[in-house]
Specification:
- By secondary structure, the chain is mainly alpha-helical.
- The chain has seven helices and two strands; from the N terminus they run αααββαααα.
- Helix 1 packs antiparallel against helix 7, helix 3 packs across helix 4 and helix 4 crosses helix 6.
- It is globular, with a radius of gyration of 16 Å.
């Protein structure tokens, strides 16, 4: 079982890097297909990959904590943007709010609840992986150096997933 999880997780790392590369190069359609594949991996692999993807998004985004769930209207009033969002995007926003605020307990609780619910698991994880692609596309266009976006994904893998000593296995 452990070997299968390791193999799936390693496959997930490659899929995630490929999705980020495709997103950074502007091939969002292909990257979204990879996001669908990532959302279908086993629970152990998915949990690691969600942590990696969330770290990556936090590296690239300026949004912190409540910035993920609220916005300011033209009059300067705080607006809850979750009210007009589909359920899976509300999940993604809450995951990113918890992650960027350093609230590991809420992050893990949200992740655990979605992984335990077969009805929501695939769509919700896919939305989070699509956000990862969207951030890669945005920053790939801004920087005009897509490889730097992929490098940030590699840094997230090293931090949240694969240990550096495992790269030489």
């Amino acid at each position: 079982m452990l070997e299968q999880v390791d193999e799936q997780t390693e496959q997930g790392y490659v899929l995630l890097q490929a999705a980020v590369a495709e997103g950074a190069l502007g091939d969002v359609e292909a990257a979204y297909r990879r996001a669908e594949t990532l959302a279908g991996l086993g629970d152990e692999a998915a949990v690691v990959l969600v942590r990696v993807a969330s770290d990556f998004v936090c590296r690239l985004s300026l949004a912190q904590g409540p910035d993920w769930t609220t916005s300011t209207d033209e009059d300067g009033n705080q607006v809850n943007i979750e009210e007009s969002s589909p359920e899976e995007r509300v999940f993604t926003r809450r995951m990113m709010a918890a992650r960027s605020a350093g609230d590991a307990e809420t992050f893990e609780a949200l992740l655990g609840s979605v992984c335990a619910d077969p009805r929501r698991r695939r769509t919700h994880l896919q939305d989070l992986f699509r956000l990862t692609v969207d951030e890669a596309e945005l920053h790939g266009q801004r920087a005009r150096r897509p490889f730097t976006v992929v490098r940030q994904m590699t840094n997230s893998i090293l931090k949240e997933g694969l240990r550096q000593e495992d790269w030489n296995r």
